[in-house]
Amino acid sequence: MLKDKFGRHIDYMRVSVTDRCNLRCIYCSQKDAFSWIPHGEILSYEELFEILDQAVKLGIRRIRLTGGEPLVRKGLISFIRQISKAWGLKDLSLTTNGTLLAEVAAELKESGLTRVNISLDTLRPERFKEITGFDYWHRVWAGIEAALATKLAPVKINVVVLRGINDDEILDLARLTLHYPLEVRFIEFMPVGKGAAWEKKYFYSTKEVIERLRPLGPLVPVVTQGGGPAHTFCISGALGKIGFISAMTHHFCATCNRIRLTADGRLRPCLFSDYEINIKSLLRRPHRTEEIRAYIKQAVDAKPRDRLQGRPQRLMRSIGG
Ligand code: SAM
User: Fold this and answer.
1) What is the pTM of this model?
2) Which CATH class is domain 2-319?
3) 141-181 residue pLDDT tens
4) Are 63 and 92 in contact (CB under 8 A)?
Protein backbone atom coordinates (compact mmCIF):
# COMPACT_ATOMS: atom_id res chain seq x y z
CA MET A 1 0.00 0.00 0.00
CA LEU A 2 1.37 3.39 -0.97
CA LYS A 3 0.75 6.21 1.49
CA ASP A 4 2.11 9.70 1.23
CA LYS A 5 3.45 11.91 4.05
CA PHE A 6 -0.04 13.21 4.73
CA GLY A 7 -1.68 9.79 5.03
CA ARG A 8 -3.28 9.79 1.60
CA HIS A 9 -3.58 6.38 0.05
CA ILE A 10 -2.13 6.49 -3.49
CA ASP A 11 -3.51 3.73 -5.69
CA TYR A 12 -4.02 5.51 -9.00
CA MET A 13 -1.56 6.28 -11.79
CA ARG A 14 -2.34 8.43 -14.78
CA VAL A 15 -0.08 7.46 -17.65
CA SER A 16 0.54 9.58 -20.73
CA VAL A 17 1.40 7.23 -23.59
CA THR A 18 2.12 10.04 -26.06
CA ASP A 19 2.08 13.82 -26.24
CA ARG A 20 0.92 13.63 -29.88
CA CYS A 21 -2.64 14.62 -30.61
CA ASN A 22 -4.78 14.91 -33.72
CA LEU A 23 -6.59 17.99 -32.36
CA ARG A 24 -5.27 21.46 -31.48
CA CYS A 25 -7.61 22.52 -28.68
CA ILE A 26 -7.16 26.16 -27.80
CA TYR A 27 -6.43 25.39 -24.14
CA CYS A 28 -3.97 22.59 -24.82
CA SER A 29 -1.76 24.05 -27.57
CA GLN A 30 0.70 26.89 -27.57
CA LYS A 31 -0.50 29.81 -29.60
CA ASP A 32 2.73 30.51 -31.43
CA ALA A 33 5.05 27.58 -30.95
CA PHE A 34 4.79 23.95 -31.70
CA SER A 35 6.90 21.17 -30.31
CA TRP A 36 6.64 17.45 -29.65
CA ILE A 37 8.72 15.27 -27.39
CA PRO A 38 11.23 13.60 -29.78
CA HIS A 39 10.20 10.03 -30.66
CA GLY A 40 13.31 8.51 -29.11
CA GLU A 41 12.42 10.02 -25.73
CA ILE A 42 8.93 8.58 -25.53
CA LEU A 43 8.78 5.50 -23.32
CA SER A 44 8.40 2.27 -25.28
CA TYR A 45 5.60 -0.10 -24.26
CA GLU A 46 8.24 -2.40 -22.73
CA GLU A 47 9.54 0.47 -20.61
CA LEU A 48 6.03 1.50 -19.62
CA PHE A 49 5.22 -2.06 -18.62
CA GLU A 50 8.36 -2.34 -16.53
CA ILE A 51 7.51 0.81 -14.56
CA LEU A 52 3.84 -0.08 -14.17
CA ASP A 53 4.70 -3.59 -13.02
CA GLN A 54 6.66 -2.17 -10.09
CA ALA A 55 3.98 0.44 -9.41
CA VAL A 56 1.32 -2.28 -9.19
CA LYS A 57 3.55 -4.35 -6.90
CA LEU A 58 3.74 -1.30 -4.62
CA GLY A 59 -0.03 -0.76 -4.54
CA ILE A 60 -1.26 1.00 -7.70
CA ARG A 61 -4.65 -0.54 -8.51
CA ARG A 62 -6.15 1.88 -11.03
CA ILE A 63 -4.51 3.03 -14.22
CA ARG A 64 -5.73 5.62 -16.69
CA LEU A 65 -4.09 5.86 -20.09
CA THR A 66 -4.09 9.34 -21.54
CA GLY A 67 -2.00 11.75 -23.58
CA GLY A 68 -1.91 13.60 -25.93
CA GLU A 69 -4.39 11.44 -27.72
CA PRO A 70 -3.68 7.86 -26.68
CA LEU A 71 -5.51 6.36 -29.67
CA VAL A 72 -3.02 7.92 -32.11
CA ARG A 73 -0.27 5.71 -30.71
CA LYS A 74 0.18 2.46 -32.64
CA GLY A 75 0.00 -0.75 -30.64
CA LEU A 76 -2.13 0.69 -27.84
CA ILE A 77 -4.72 -2.07 -27.94
CA SER A 78 -2.09 -4.81 -27.57
CA PHE A 79 -0.60 -2.87 -24.67
CA ILE A 80 -4.01 -2.62 -23.00
CA ARG A 81 -4.48 -6.36 -23.48
CA GLN A 82 -1.09 -6.99 -21.89
CA ILE A 83 -1.70 -4.85 -18.82
CA SER A 84 -5.29 -5.95 -18.32
CA LYS A 85 -4.12 -9.57 -18.19
CA ALA A 86 -1.05 -8.92 -16.08
CA TRP A 87 -2.39 -7.75 -12.73
CA GLY A 88 -6.17 -7.81 -12.30
CA LEU A 89 -6.45 -4.05 -11.83
CA LYS A 90 -9.53 -2.55 -10.16
CA ASP A 91 -9.88 -0.08 -13.01
CA LEU A 92 -8.21 0.37 -16.39
CA SER A 93 -9.55 3.43 -18.17
CA LEU A 94 -8.74 5.69 -21.09
CA THR A 95 -9.17 9.42 -21.67
CA THR A 96 -9.69 10.17 -25.34
CA ASN A 97 -10.92 12.92 -27.61
CA GLY A 98 -13.13 10.25 -29.19
CA THR A 99 -12.23 11.03 -32.81
CA LEU A 100 -10.78 7.55 -33.42
CA LEU A 101 -12.91 5.66 -30.93
CA ALA A 102 -15.81 4.37 -33.05
CA GLU A 103 -13.52 2.10 -35.07
CA VAL A 104 -11.85 0.50 -32.05
CA ALA A 105 -14.38 0.60 -29.19
CA ALA A 106 -15.30 -3.09 -29.46
CA GLU A 107 -11.65 -4.12 -29.62
CA LEU A 108 -10.81 -1.93 -26.64
CA LYS A 109 -13.56 -3.56 -24.62
CA GLU A 110 -12.45 -7.02 -25.64
CA SER A 111 -8.82 -6.20 -24.75
CA GLY A 112 -9.82 -5.51 -21.15
CA LEU A 113 -10.35 -1.75 -21.00
CA THR A 114 -12.95 -0.98 -18.34
CA ARG A 115 -14.24 2.42 -19.41
CA VAL A 116 -13.60 5.67 -21.27
CA ASN A 117 -13.74 9.38 -20.61
CA ILE A 118 -14.40 11.32 -23.79
CA SER A 119 -13.76 15.04 -24.15
CA LEU A 120 -16.50 17.07 -25.80
CA ASP A 121 -16.91 20.76 -25.07
CA THR A 122 -19.75 21.52 -27.46
CA LEU A 123 -22.75 20.01 -29.21
CA ARG A 124 -22.28 22.28 -32.22
CA PRO A 125 -20.05 20.93 -34.99
CA GLU A 126 -18.97 24.36 -36.21
CA ARG A 127 -18.01 25.40 -32.68
CA PHE A 128 -16.12 22.13 -32.22
CA LYS A 129 -13.99 23.15 -35.19
CA GLU A 130 -13.29 26.54 -33.64
CA ILE A 131 -12.20 25.00 -30.32
CA THR A 132 -10.19 22.06 -31.68
CA GLY A 133 -9.14 23.20 -35.16
CA PHE A 134 -10.77 20.19 -36.85
CA ASP A 135 -14.17 19.37 -38.28
CA TYR A 136 -14.48 16.13 -36.32
CA TRP A 137 -17.59 16.60 -34.14
CA HIS A 138 -19.48 13.79 -35.86
CA ARG A 139 -16.57 11.44 -35.36
CA VAL A 140 -16.57 12.15 -31.64
CA TRP A 141 -20.31 11.63 -31.42
CA ALA A 142 -19.92 8.28 -33.23
CA GLY A 143 -17.23 7.44 -30.66
CA ILE A 144 -19.61 8.22 -27.80
CA GLU A 145 -22.31 6.02 -29.33
CA ALA A 146 -19.81 3.20 -29.82
CA ALA A 147 -18.62 3.51 -26.22
CA LEU A 148 -22.21 3.23 -25.01
CA ALA A 149 -22.98 0.32 -27.33
CA THR A 150 -19.89 -1.64 -26.23
CA LYS A 151 -20.45 -0.79 -22.55
CA LEU A 152 -17.12 0.90 -21.91
CA ALA A 153 -19.06 2.16 -18.96
CA PRO A 154 -19.63 4.41 -17.18
CA VAL A 155 -19.01 6.62 -20.21
CA LYS A 156 -17.95 10.03 -18.94
CA ILE A 157 -17.96 13.20 -21.02
CA ASN A 158 -15.41 15.86 -20.08
CA VAL A 159 -16.53 19.42 -20.74
CA VAL A 160 -14.11 22.25 -20.04
CA VAL A 161 -16.34 25.28 -19.51
CA LEU A 162 -15.00 28.43 -21.17
CA ARG A 163 -16.72 31.76 -20.68
CA GLY A 164 -17.85 33.28 -23.94
CA ILE A 165 -17.00 30.11 -25.84
CA ASN A 166 -19.28 27.29 -24.67
CA ASP A 167 -20.98 28.48 -21.45
CA ASP A 168 -24.22 28.99 -23.40
CA GLU A 169 -24.37 25.20 -23.91
CA ILE A 170 -24.24 24.17 -20.26
CA LEU A 171 -27.95 23.34 -20.13
CA ASP A 172 -27.92 21.44 -23.42
CA LEU A 173 -24.89 19.42 -22.38
CA ALA A 174 -26.49 18.60 -19.02
CA ARG A 175 -29.70 17.59 -20.78
CA LEU A 176 -27.79 14.84 -22.57
CA THR A 177 -28.05 12.95 -19.28
CA LEU A 178 -31.84 12.85 -19.65
CA HIS A 179 -31.58 10.70 -22.75
CA TYR A 180 -28.24 8.88 -22.46
CA PRO A 181 -26.58 7.00 -19.58
CA LEU A 182 -23.63 9.39 -19.73
CA GLU A 183 -21.88 11.19 -16.90
CA VAL A 184 -21.38 14.74 -18.15
CA ARG A 185 -18.64 16.40 -16.09
CA PHE A 186 -18.16 20.14 -16.09
CA ILE A 187 -14.49 20.94 -15.51
CA GLU A 188 -13.12 24.27 -14.33
CA PHE A 189 -10.52 25.64 -16.72
CA MET A 190 -7.06 25.35 -15.15
CA PRO A 191 -3.96 27.43 -15.93
CA VAL A 192 -1.72 24.67 -17.23
CA GLY A 193 1.03 25.02 -19.82
CA LYS A 194 3.28 27.88 -20.82
CA GLY A 195 1.82 29.63 -23.84
CA ALA A 196 -1.56 27.84 -23.69
CA ALA A 197 -4.67 29.98 -23.85
CA TRP A 198 -5.53 30.29 -20.15
CA GLU A 199 -6.89 33.70 -19.29
CA LYS A 200 -9.04 34.74 -16.38
CA LYS A 201 -11.67 36.05 -18.75
CA TYR A 202 -12.45 32.49 -19.90
CA PHE A 203 -12.79 31.12 -16.39
CA TYR A 204 -16.26 29.88 -15.43
CA SER A 205 -16.74 28.50 -11.92
CA THR A 206 -18.70 25.42 -10.85
CA LYS A 207 -20.91 27.73 -8.81
CA GLU A 208 -21.90 29.56 -11.98
CA VAL A 209 -22.48 26.27 -13.82
CA ILE A 210 -24.83 25.10 -11.04
CA GLU A 211 -26.68 28.40 -11.23
CA ARG A 212 -27.09 27.89 -14.96
CA LEU A 213 -28.56 24.41 -14.36
CA ARG A 214 -31.40 25.71 -12.20
CA PRO A 215 -34.12 25.21 -14.86
CA LEU A 216 -33.47 21.46 -14.66
CA GLY A 217 -34.74 21.29 -11.06
CA PRO A 218 -32.94 19.96 -8.00
CA LEU A 219 -29.60 18.21 -8.38
CA VAL A 220 -29.69 15.05 -6.30
CA PRO A 221 -26.27 13.95 -4.92
CA VAL A 222 -25.08 10.55 -6.09
CA VAL A 223 -22.51 8.47 -4.23
CA THR A 224 -19.77 7.23 -6.57
CA GLN A 225 -16.93 4.78 -6.11
CA GLY A 226 -13.26 5.16 -6.90
CA GLY A 227 -12.35 8.36 -5.08
CA GLY A 228 -12.33 10.57 -8.20
CA PRO A 229 -12.39 14.35 -8.00
CA ALA A 230 -15.93 14.90 -9.37
CA HIS A 231 -18.91 15.73 -7.19
CA THR A 232 -21.74 13.84 -8.82
CA PHE A 233 -25.47 14.51 -9.05
CA CYS A 234 -28.46 13.55 -11.13
CA ILE A 235 -31.58 15.31 -12.25
CA SER A 236 -35.04 13.86 -11.90
CA GLY A 237 -35.83 11.23 -14.52
CA ALA A 238 -32.31 11.22 -15.96
CA LEU A 239 -30.53 8.13 -17.29
CA GLY A 240 -27.15 9.69 -16.65
CA LYS A 241 -25.34 11.86 -14.13
CA ILE A 242 -23.80 15.29 -13.90
CA GLY A 243 -20.39 15.82 -12.33
CA PHE A 244 -18.43 18.89 -11.31
CA ILE A 245 -14.65 19.04 -11.17
CA SER A 246 -13.81 22.23 -9.36
CA ALA A 247 -10.04 22.12 -9.48
CA MET A 248 -9.80 25.89 -9.08
CA THR A 249 -12.51 26.85 -6.60
CA HIS A 250 -12.65 23.70 -4.39
CA HIS A 251 -9.48 21.83 -4.98
CA PHE A 252 -9.51 18.21 -3.93
CA CYS A 253 -5.93 17.83 -2.70
CA ALA A 254 -7.06 16.29 0.60
CA THR A 255 -8.41 13.25 -1.25
CA CYS A 256 -5.84 13.13 -4.05
CA ASN A 257 -4.98 9.49 -4.74
CA ARG A 258 -2.77 9.77 -7.80
CA ILE A 259 0.64 10.20 -9.34
CA ARG A 260 1.36 10.75 -13.02
CA LEU A 261 3.81 9.30 -15.49
CA THR A 262 4.62 11.51 -18.48
CA ALA A 263 5.23 10.16 -21.97
CA ASP A 264 8.96 10.89 -21.64
CA GLY A 265 9.28 8.94 -18.42
CA ARG A 266 8.94 11.49 -15.65
CA LEU A 267 7.00 10.72 -12.50
CA ARG A 268 4.97 13.74 -11.59
CA PRO A 269 3.65 13.88 -8.02
CA CYS A 270 1.21 16.75 -8.65
CA LEU A 271 -0.34 18.26 -11.79
CA PHE A 272 0.31 21.76 -10.50
CA SER A 273 3.96 21.30 -9.61
CA ASP A 274 6.73 21.12 -12.19
CA TYR A 275 8.74 18.89 -9.88
CA GLU A 276 9.36 15.61 -11.72
CA ILE A 277 11.45 12.51 -11.15
CA ASN A 278 13.29 11.09 -14.15
CA ILE A 279 12.44 7.41 -13.83
CA LYS A 280 13.38 6.80 -17.44
CA SER A 281 17.02 7.38 -16.53
CA LEU A 282 16.95 4.08 -14.62
CA LEU A 283 15.67 1.90 -17.39
CA ARG A 284 18.95 0.94 -18.98
CA ARG A 285 20.69 0.07 -15.73
CA PRO A 286 21.12 -3.51 -14.59
CA HIS A 287 19.42 -4.54 -11.29
CA ARG A 288 17.07 -1.60 -11.50
CA THR A 289 13.93 -3.07 -9.93
CA GLU A 290 14.66 -1.74 -6.46
CA GLU A 291 15.59 1.66 -7.87
CA ILE A 292 12.37 1.89 -9.86
CA ARG A 293 10.42 1.16 -6.71
CA ALA A 294 12.44 3.72 -4.77
CA TYR A 295 11.67 6.39 -7.36
CA ILE A 296 7.95 5.60 -7.26
CA LYS A 297 7.99 5.88 -3.46
CA GLN A 298 9.92 9.14 -3.78
CA ALA A 299 7.23 10.52 -6.11
CA VAL A 300 4.54 9.57 -3.60
CA ASP A 301 6.53 11.18 -0.79
CA ALA A 302 6.95 14.35 -2.84
CA LYS A 303 3.22 14.96 -3.17
CA PRO A 304 2.52 18.42 -1.75
CA ARG A 305 -0.26 18.70 0.83
CA ASP A 306 -2.05 21.41 -1.12
CA ARG A 307 -2.19 22.84 -4.59
CA LEU A 308 0.74 25.06 -5.46
CA GLN A 309 -0.09 28.45 -6.87
CA GLY A 310 1.11 29.52 -10.27
CA ARG A 311 1.10 27.83 -13.58
CA PRO A 312 2.90 24.60 -14.44
CA GLN A 313 5.03 25.00 -17.56
CA ARG A 314 4.25 21.82 -19.44
CA LEU A 315 1.17 21.62 -21.62
CA MET A 316 -1.60 19.32 -20.49
CA ARG A 317 -1.02 17.08 -23.48
CA SER A 318 2.56 16.45 -22.45
CA ILE A 319 1.78 15.92 -18.75
CA GLY A 320 -1.19 13.66 -19.46
CA GLY A 321 -4.56 15.24 -18.71
N1 SAM B 1 -6.68 13.58 -25.89
C2 SAM B 1 -7.41 13.15 -24.76
C3 SAM B 1 -8.67 13.97 -24.60
O4 SAM B 1 -8.91 14.86 -25.39
O5 SAM B 1 -9.42 13.68 -23.68
C6 SAM B 1 -6.63 13.10 -23.46
C7 SAM B 1 -5.74 14.25 -23.13
S8 SAM B 1 -6.56 15.74 -22.73
C9 SAM B 1 -5.19 16.73 -22.24
C10 SAM B 1 -7.37 15.31 -21.22
C11 SAM B 1 -8.39 16.25 -20.70
O12 SAM B 1 -7.76 17.41 -20.21
C13 SAM B 1 -9.43 16.70 -21.69
O14 SAM B 1 -10.72 16.44 -21.19
C15 SAM B 1 -9.20 18.17 -21.80
O16 SAM B 1 -10.37 18.86 -22.07
C17 SAM B 1 -8.64 18.49 -20.43
N18 SAM B 1 -7.87 19.73 -20.36
C19 SAM B 1 -6.84 20.11 -21.13
N20 SAM B 1 -6.38 21.30 -20.74
C21 SAM B 1 -7.14 21.69 -19.69
C22 SAM B 1 -7.14 22.83 -18.83
N23 SAM B 1 -6.26 23.81 -18.99
N24 SAM B 1 -8.06 22.89 -17.85
C25 SAM B 1 -8.94 21.89 -17.67
N26 SAM B 1 -8.97 20.77 -18.43
C27 SAM B 1 -8.08 20.69 -19.43
Assistant:
1) 0.96
2) alpha beta
3) 999 999 999 999 999 999 999 999 999 999 999 999 999 99
4) yes
